[in-house]
Design brief:
Layout: E1 10-14, E2 26-33, H1 36-49, E3 53-56, E4 62-64, E5 69-76, E6 81-84, E7 87-91, H2 96-105, E8 108-109, H3 121-126, E9 130-131, E10 134-135, E11 140-146, E12 152-156, H4 168-171, E13 176-183, E14 185-186, H5 189-206, E15 221-222, H6 228-233, H7 235-239, E16 242-243, E17 247-249, H8 251-257, E18 264-265, E19 268-270, E20 278-280, H9 286-304, E21 313-315
Parallel strand pairs: 2-5, 3-5, 4-21
Antiparallel strand pairs: 1-2, 6-7, 7-13, 8-14, 9-10, 11-12, 11-13, 15-17, 16-17, 18-19, 19-20
The structure holds flavin-adenine dinucleotide (FAD).
Length: 317
């Protein structure tokens, strides 16, 4: 063990087990930071040693390279969580499914749409996670974070710059989300529980949850970016338009029409159940998934003239 490594920090830690894809090589350094102070210390250590760092939440929106990450992975594990009337204060490492279940059990309405989204609260804020017409931005009051100089700052909802699967934190990878405050409305506990259960059943029926994945690979496509001729040739595109969070056609429709359902490279496969999920069906390498993404991207450009943007975040490539 290198003498300059702080206690609690490990070396050569396989990242596959920290991701929902179950893919990825080792982190050169790895630390699980259980408090704001430990997060700040880890960031400071990386800066002092000139080592790049990566902030890891629940690993449910990332594809980690087979070579791993040649730097420090800081696994966010600060877990304080408090409900005061209709206000919730939660630290970034809190498990999102736990936050959803706890607020529902207190009859708080506002995040029930997130039932079944894996990962941490911090990861959900960074990507402005959303589903079934809801987004994190709808209930977030303010967010505390560590800036690039190591200062703890607070942004209001507006300052977080939320948009579709986007926030200021995505634009500033140096910012580390520490905690946030959410405001809820009063809801009926039983109605919320039923909604949550139905949402999970919907997901189980339509998503390939039996395989490792990172959820949707591509963002949905803005109808304004789709050629009129596509709507004429493929009537399904028009009937699939969803106003969530603005008029879009799900990327899955394009991938399906392009004939890619079930397409495989190595151990990675375009799901037959939900074609925007590229699953790890058999010991896939990151390289397999990456090639599959590139095939799909080019097929969508060639067939429909449609440009796609990944939701998945790449680590160590
Ligand atoms: C089966 C399945 C279904 C899904 N369904 C949905 C869905 O319906 N809607 C949706 O929006 N997403 C969905 N996702 C994607 C994913 O769960 C979300 O994007 C989730 O919010 C990511 O959180 P995470 O903690 O796992 O982030 P990670 O995957 O760990 O990280 C993602 C990015 O966020 C950064 N990050 C994480 N924590 C912090 C922090 N504290 N500060 C700064 N940066 C941070 C990381 O550095 C990384 O760049 C799904 C994924 C799966 C596997």
């Amino acid at each position: 063990m290198d003498a300059s490594i702080p206690s609690g920090m490990k070396q050569n830690v396989k990242l596959a087990r920290y991701t929902t894809y179950k893919i990825g090589g080792p982190a050169r350094y790895f630390v699980a930071a259980k408090s704001e102070q430990e997060i700040a210390e880890a960031v400071l250590w990386a800066g002092k040693e000139g080592v790049p760092y990566f902030i890891l939440g629940g690993g449910s929106n990332i594809l980690v390279s087979d070579k791993g990450f040649d730097g420090l992975v800081i696994k966010i594990k600060n877990l304080k969580f408090e409900i005061k009337n209709f206000i919730v204060e939660a630290e970034a490492g809190v498990d999102l499914p736990f936050l959803v279940a706890e607020t529902i059990s207190h009859g708080l309405k506002g995040i029930e749409w997130a039932s079944g989204i894996p990962g941490t609260f911090g990861g959900a804020i960074r990507g402005n996670a959303g589903a079934f017409g809801g987004e994190i931005k709808d209930i977030l009051v303010s967010c505390r974070f560590l800036d690039e100089k190591g200062n703890v700052r607070t942004f209001s909802n507006k300052e977080c710059g939320f948009s579709y699967r986007n926030s200021i934190f995505k634009q500033h990878p140096d910012y580390v989300i520490l905690s946030a405050t959410l405001a809820f409305e009063e809801g009926d506990k039983e109605t919320l529980k039923k909604f949550s259960k139905d949402t999970m059943s919907y997901r189980a029926a339509r998503h390939p949850l039996e395989y490792g994945s990172c959820g949707s690979i591509f963002k949905a496509i803005d109808v304004n970016d789709i050629r009129i001729s596509n709507f004429e040739h493929y009537p399904r595109f028009r009937t699939s338009i969803k106003a969530d969070p603005f008029p879009v056609v799900p990327a899955a429709c394009f991938i399906d029409e392009a004939g890619l359902k079930g397409y495989r490279i190595g151990g990675a496969m375009v799901s037959g159940k939900h074609p925007n999920f590229f699953v790890n069906y058999k010991r896939a390498r990151a390289e397999d998934v990456l090639m599959l993404i590139n095939v799909a991207r080019h097929r969508l450009i060639d067939t429909f003239g449609v440009m796609t943007e990944e939701e998945v975040q790449y680590v160590g490539f």
